[in-house]
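During the second half of the funding period, the structural biology subgroup turned its attention to how the target accommodates small molecules. The most pressing case was flavin-adenine dinucleotide, which had performed well in the primary screen but for which no bound structure existed. We therefore specified the complex as follows and requested a full 3D prediction, including the ligand pose.
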Amino acid sequence: MPNIVVVGAGVSGLTCALLLAKQGHAVAVVAKHMPGDYDIEYTSPWAGANVLPMASEKDSHWERRTWPVLQRLAAEVPEAGLHFQTARVLRRAADLNLISRLGDDLFEPNPWYRTLMPNYRELPASQLPVGIHSGCEFTSVCINTPVYLAWLVGQCAALGVTFRRATLKHIAEAAGMHHLGGQADVVVNATGLLACRLGGVMDSKVYPIRGQIVLVRNEAAGVMPTVSGCDDGEDELVYIMQRALGGGTILGGTYTKGSWEPNPDPDIAIRIMKRATETLPELTGGKGIEGLDVVRHGVGLRPGREGGVRIEKEEIDGVSVVHNYGHAGWGYQGSWGCAERVVELVEEVLREKEKAKL
Ligand code: FAD
């Protein structure tokens, strides 16, 4: 049975570990941070998260392959922590010329995902808020990320995957860390943002995209609005999503490229809350920001990468590595598609190794 070490216990590493274990491989996960931790170096727990397709049509395969799985989990596996919600994507008149400023297709009129997401419809003019040029609605999911990450750990453990905390200085160290001993056949690198600092990888194309959020106890009545822009600055966003299983409602946010700042900025927090209560007054029964019941303020750093996600194999100091990092703001909604590709690449490496033995 091939031995695989997965470095990283965020949504990328855990989904890879689960699919590799399902293939019958002996999988060990090694990570500095695990589900349950809240740390600026560990992105996954900070995400909302929901599914708002953002890839261009040409790069949409990761999201296309992931959606059916998340849809099935929401419908059939309540303990995974997902539930169906109505996504409402609002395009401001003022943003029409810069709608792709985040480099994504979410706010495109007539988007490719109209045929992927159930119950897609353009909103009639009579249902558009003031200042909104057009918009659409569709059925999506919101993921209670702490619950979902813990569920992934449980699914992995049930298939014999082992978990170990360690901080690696070099990716090749992972090969010697399998619970069965010896050298692992393949190492999967799912280190997210820290791929820019890990020896043997040191990917200088990786950079943080800071996202500040507010988690509140108020509920958003099944609707997840997001707006194409706001008047508070180019890197400030408007999105609201209610997590499943009492996970509270996430108010977002920001999208600041290159910022490693780990502390929430109080002025930004006030602007986020103000925009959220203006966009969805029902959140506080019309009482505005004063009616919000805050659980916590937080900051997560999305793992951005010039040129996009890196999913490829590489030989590093004699160790076969398959990379899977750099998912920016779509790590959950592309997680299963990316992990399937990782499995394909791992199988390719194993076949090459078998051939070399003959
Ligand atoms: P991480 O979660 O950062 O995991 C990296 C793992 O590698 C950790 O376990 C870490 O400890 C380990 N590691 C790193 N270096 C080492 C080392 N040297 N030694 C040992 N272990 C190491 N995505 C969506 O799909 N939908 C959303 O709605 C959404 N909303 C978001 C909102 C915010 C505010 C933020 C910040 C992100 C959001 N995202 C969303 C993006 C998503 O959260 C990320 O793309 C995803 O979490 C990246 O996961 P990852 O597993 O690649 O990285």
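Two results from this model are relevant to the next phase. The mean pLDDT is 96. The radius of gyration is 20 Å.
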